[in-house]
Write a structure and sequence with these properties.
Alkaline Phosphatase, subunit A, eight-stranded mixed sheet, about 425 residues
Length: about 425
């Protein structure tokens, strides 16, 4: 297959929404990308529309139940901080960076989800120190490219302030610029979370979110400038995209409270889960309801009765209940017993103490108990799409794609690099290409 570009730079602006398009189209660097290239202002995300499944979809072209990353975090009832799907081995099948590496291309990834221990030449994976005895730098070094990360930390580590934003993205930006200048990778994946973080803790349309968008415009400009400085701009393709949108919320619902009251979840004197028959695993705007024993029909029936009763009163915040089969048909984890969708203004947590329904207060958000905006909702919700923009070698100028799906992005990237991802759920968007 003919290769259309020499260098593909994919920049994920986490939580970039279609609703942001009127603002960013007039920002200098986003505007330059839009004028020189093509875009789709209406990209449908996956279910559940959370970061790790989305980013696994972007590099595989498949739905979560096919690539295996069905949530951000694992099902670990009783854990106050469940482990995330950090590692490459969680992704079933091949990925864009695997195929690029096989083809002899140089690859780089900066905080791209689900890349820990991946075969990437310059890899700074997104992974957290999730145990009291872990240290963040050691965890990152162990799971990525050791010498590369040591060098980036030596040069730019002073910028970072833990996981706080915008410092974390500023550190990622400087590392990306340096990597472009010195390494000139054929494929580079960059993940920025500034916008997502500020939407969680200040709200979708907050001034903090608007400032994050302006910072993202500046970051895009710095990356474009780095390609010019490296002498590879004319042979490069720049992609800027989002993974999902977000919705504001004012109420948090806790189905595990009711499951506990019905004897389906057991807790100790400290309120920690010790055993369970049915458990609600949050995806924020939606949630999986899992059955510990698939043959426990009595618990299944009990859980169904609880959910049906909740859905009858709209004040309970349950918009829809799917069976596991129906969840699978939408690309989610078909092994769940049920999947529930939160109504507008609500999101779902794994909380097990107190009442079923909590009003979200400023103190809750300040302490990190709850947030003001979330994702994970059904991609069928109105005004809940994301954006795709591309410019440079191999991309038409001025094409507007009315709509596409997140699963189409991986095959599109593969086509640009002359690669193939195999039998994917999505398809390459042919109207983007300058053949």
């Amino acid at each position: 297959m003919k290769r259309l570009t020499d260098h593909l730079i994919v920049i994920s602006f986490d939580c970039l929404s279609s609703l942001d398009f009127p603002a960013i189209k007039d920002m200098p660097n986003f505007k330059d990308l839009l004028v020189k290239g093509s875009h789709c202002p209406n990209v449908k995300s996956i279910y559940p529309s959370v970061t790790y499944p989305c980013h696994a979809t972007i590099v595989t072209g498949n739905f979560p139940n096919k690539h295996g990353v069905i949530n951000n975090t694992h099902l670990q009832p009783g854990s106050s901080s469940p482990d995330w799907y950090w590692h490459r081995h969680h992704v079933k099948g091949t990925t864009l960076y695997d195929e690029a590496k096989k083809a002899g291309m140089t690859t780089a990834a900066l905080l791209w989800p689900v890349t820990a221990k991946a075969e990437i030449d310059y890899n700074m994976p997104e992974i957290f120190a999730n145990r009291p005895w872990h240290h963040q730098i050691a965890v990152s070094l162990w799971n990525g490219s050791t010498s590369f990360q040591l060098e980036m930390n030596r040069r730019f580590g002073h910028i970072r302030n833990g996981l706080h934003q915008p410092q974390l993205d500023d550190f990622v930006l400087e590392s990306a610029v340096e990597t472009i200048r010195k390494k000139k990778p054929n494929l580079m994946l960059i993940h920025f979370t500034d916008l997502d973080s500020h939407r969680h803790y200040h709200g979708f349309s907050s001034e903090e979110a608007r400032q994050a968008l302006r910072r993202h415009d500046q970051r895009l400009g710095r990356i474009t400038a780095a390609l010019r400085e490296a002498g590879i701009y004319e042979n490069s393709t720049i992609v800027a995209l989002g993974d999902h949108s977000a919705l504001d919320e004012s109420k948090a619902i806790k189905p595990n409270v009711l499951l506990k009251e019905e004897g389906l979840v057991s807790v100790n004197s400290q309120g920690r889960v010790t055993d369970w028959k049915v458990y609600c695993k949050s995806c924020d705007g939606s949630a999986y309801i899992y059955l510990k024993d698939p043959n426990d029909h009595q618990s299944l029936q009990k859980a169904e009765q609880i959910l049906n009763k909740l859905q009858k009163d709209e004040k309970n915040g349950i918009e829809r209940i799917l069976t596991g089969k129906e969840a699978g048909e939408r690309g989610a984890d078909e092994t769940c017993a049920f999947m529930i969708e939160a109504s507008l203004g609500y999101y779902i947590t794994e909380g097990i103490q107190g009442k079923y329904l909590d009003d979200i207060t400023p103190e809750d958000v300040k302490t990190g108990k709850y947030t003001y905006a979330s994702h994970g909702y059904s991609p069928e919700k109105p005004d809940y799409h994301t954006i795709f923009m591309a410019a440079g070698k191999g991309i038409k100028e001025g094409a507007v794609i009315p709509s596409m799906h997140l699963t189409d992005e991986g095959p599109t990237f593969a086509r640009l690099l002359g690669l193939h991802l195999g039998d994917t759920d999505g398809e390459a968007v042919q109207d983007l290409f300058q053949l």
